[in-house]
């Protein structure tokens, strides 16, 4: 069952709204007029913590409810306080283009051997029906060894999703361990040789 977010008329400047526990909202899409409203920040934050790609019921001040997804979230960099939300009105029977976060599970075999895991892609562009949306796409990396990599084309297929990201895009790779080279023996001996030469020079001067 979709959660409902009650939107209210925006009154006053954004900073004043935030002090009242509200977050400024813009709602648009699916042929709807773009509206600037406000929502309870705590309610929206709670929804985001559970599923940032959830389909919601937005209750408008004077025109019933609309099915929406959260399209963009702006937060204060340090406090992570909500600054602004974009709601995108959707048609539950029509496919939509959206993004899903990649979540890597397991510990790669190469990492256990000292390799370094490097993530190159954090989100996947997909086309799907709203009821097929998920908050994350889990990718098991357990079998990846040193030197291995995953491309978008290597990801497991997900029923109901059309992947829009280029299949050749690099998702993750396991790099060899970082090796710190020891100074060559000749380089290590050089300071000592210089010091001995200096001492010999001093002796001659005496």
Automatic annotation (TrEMBL):
Signal peptide: none annotated. Residues 11-87 form the Large ribosomal subunit protein bL25 L25 domain. Residues 96-177 form the Large ribosomal subunit protein bL25 beta domain. Keywords: Ribonucleoprotein, Ribosomal protein, RNA-binding, rRNA-binding. It comes from the Bacteria. Residues 181-206 are annotated as: Disordered. Pfam families: Ribosomal_L25p, Ribosomal_TL5_C. HAMAP family: Ribosomal_bL25_CTC. This is one of the proteins that binds to the 5S RNA in the ribosome where it forms part of the central protuberance. Belongs to the bacterial ribosomal protein bL25 family. CTC subfamily. Part of the 50S ribosomal subunit; part of the 5S rRNA/L5/L18/L25 subcomplex. Contacts the 5S rRNA. Binds to the 5S rRNA independently of L5 and L18. This is Large ribosomal subunit protein bL25. The lineage of its organism: Bacteria, Bacillati, Bacillota, Bacilli, Bacillales. The gene is rplY.
């Amino acid at each position: 069952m979709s959660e409902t977010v009650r939107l209210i008329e925006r009154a006053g400047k954004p900073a004043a709204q935030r002090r009242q526990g509200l977050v400024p909202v813009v709602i648009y899409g699916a042929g709807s007029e773009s509206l600037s409203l406000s929502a309870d920040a705590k309610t929206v934050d709670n929804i985001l913590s559970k599923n940032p790609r959830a389909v919601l019921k937005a209750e408008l001040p004077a025109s019933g409810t609309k099915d929406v997804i959260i399209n963009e979230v702006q937060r204060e960099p340090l406090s992570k306080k909500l600054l602004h939300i974009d709601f995108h009105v959707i048609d539950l029977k029509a496919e939509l283009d959206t993004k899903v976060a990649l979540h890597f599970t397991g510990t790669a075999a190469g990492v256990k051997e000292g390799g370094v895991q490097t993530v190159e892609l954090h989100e996947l562009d997909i086309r799907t029906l709203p009821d097929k949306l998920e908050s994350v796409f889990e990718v098991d990396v357990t079998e990846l060894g040193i030197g291995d990599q995953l491309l978008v084309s290597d990801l497991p297929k997900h029923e109901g999703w059309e992947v829009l990201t280029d299949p050749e895009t690099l998702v993750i790779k396991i790099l060899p361990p970082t090796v710190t080279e020891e100074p060559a023996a000749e380089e290590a001996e050089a300071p000592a040789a210089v010091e001995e030469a200096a001492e010999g020079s001093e002796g001659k001067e005496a």
